[in-house]
Amino acid sequence: MLDYLFFDESLAQRFAGSIRELGGSAVVESTPEGGVQVRVPQASLTDTAIEQAGELYDEMFFIEQAELVEVGASEADACGVQIQLSTGEFTNVMMVPEQMNRLLSVFSPKEVQDLFAKVADAVENPQAHACTVCHVMSEQFMAKMQSE
Fold first, then answer.
1. Distance of alpha carbon 138 from alpha carbon 93, whole angstroms
2. Model pTM?
3. Calculated CA dihedral for residues 17, 22, 25, 29, nearest 10 degrees
4. Cα(100)–Cα(96) distance, rounded to whole angstroms?
5. How many domains does the chain have?
6. Each residue's pLDDT tens digit, 24-72
7. DSSP code, position 25
């Protein structure tokens, strides 16, 4: 099950409509914390549609939700970044809206998503990311990091 969190009902409903347009099914539910969750059975979407849904969620959640929080139109206490783990499961990294707004003032939503995905990969695969400070300083290492 893919869960997408929102703090604004209208954004959640719009997102659910977009999921249905992609051929999936979506249920909009209130959360005990006062948010709104869009639940999507993963099997109801193709891999391409899951990727499109993630991009749409990034755009709607990161940009539109952050704008609502900034202008005071939303009572959000937290924002989050959804990342896919190596098992295929999705998880959310939650943060306060002010932190998200600071990130988005410097990085695009895709860059924020990529940053958290790299952190998750390093946590899940520490041996693959083990290196020394000297290694990090090498030009080849930096070239490799920029190409990923």
1. 31
2. 0.52
3. -40
4. 7
5. 1
6. 999 999 877 777 889 999 888 888 998 888 888 877 776 666 666 555 5
7. -
